[in-house]
């Protein structure tokens, strides 16, 4: 039987992936590996895993820092908010307005890293 590959449009253009996502000095080939389609199998796996995570969020008991780019076109910041609401305790949610999918590779990433380090320091002291 012939394998048929289905694709779904994941986002509109490479800019939604990140504003500064190509590491300095990396060859152009790195850029070519990014595209705007995923297979049906990958979509279903991601979707089912996301549904499971939302259904079981209240069971998560460890301290969690959940950060999401507010302009992320790949994944849903609303789903991150829903997940955080279901955890309630021990969850710090930070939505980075104007940031895309890779918040640690955006212009202004220093603020993201500082926020993360400050959160980790607070956890160690607790």
Task: Show the helix and strand layout.
Blueprint: E1 7-9, H1 28-32, E2 37-39, H2 40-55, E3 64-69, H3 77-87, E4 91-96, H4 109-125
Parallel strand pairs: 3-4
Antiparallel strand pairs: 1-2
Write up what this structure looks like.
With 126 residues, the protein is an alpha+beta fold. Helices cover 39% and strands 14% of the residues. Helix 3 (77-87) links the parallel strand 3 and strand 4. It is flat. The model is unreliable at 1-18 and 27-32 (pLDDT under 50).
- Helix-strand category: alpha+beta
Residues in helix, %: 25-40%
**What is the CA-CA span between the terminal residues?**
58 Å
How many helical stretches?
4
Quote the average pLDDT. Answer: 79
Strand order of the largest sheet: 1-2
CATH architecture grouping: 3-Layer(aba) Sandwich
Quick one: how many beta strands? 4
Spell out the CATH superfamily.
Answer: Alpha/Beta hydrolase fold, catalytic domain
- What's the main sheet like? 2 strands, antiparallel
Give the uncertain stretches in residue-range form.
1-18, 27-32
CATH topology: Rossmann fold
What are the secondary-structure elements, in order, as H or E? EHEHEHEH
- Radius of gyration, whole Å: 17 Å
Shape: flat
The CATH class, by name, is Alpha Beta
Q: What's the short story on this structure?
A:
This protein has 126 residues and is an alpha+beta fold.
């Amino acid at each position: 039987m012939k394998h048929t590959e289905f694709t779904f449009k994941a986002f509109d253009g490479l800019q939604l992936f990140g504003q500064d996502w190509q590491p300095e000095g990396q060859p152009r080939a790195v850029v070519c590996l990014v595209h705007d389609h995923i297979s049906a199998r990958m979509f279903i796996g991601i979707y089912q895993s996301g549904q499971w995570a939302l259904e079981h969020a209240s069971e998560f008991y460890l301290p969690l820092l959940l950060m999401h780019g507010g302009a992320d076109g790949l994944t849903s910041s609303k789903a991150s908010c829903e997940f955080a609401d279901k955890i309630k305790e021990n969850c710090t949610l930070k939505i980075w307005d104007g940031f895309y999918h890779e918040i640690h590779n955006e212009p202004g990433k220093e603020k993201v890293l500082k926020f993360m380090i400050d959160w980790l320091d607070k956890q160690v002291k607790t």
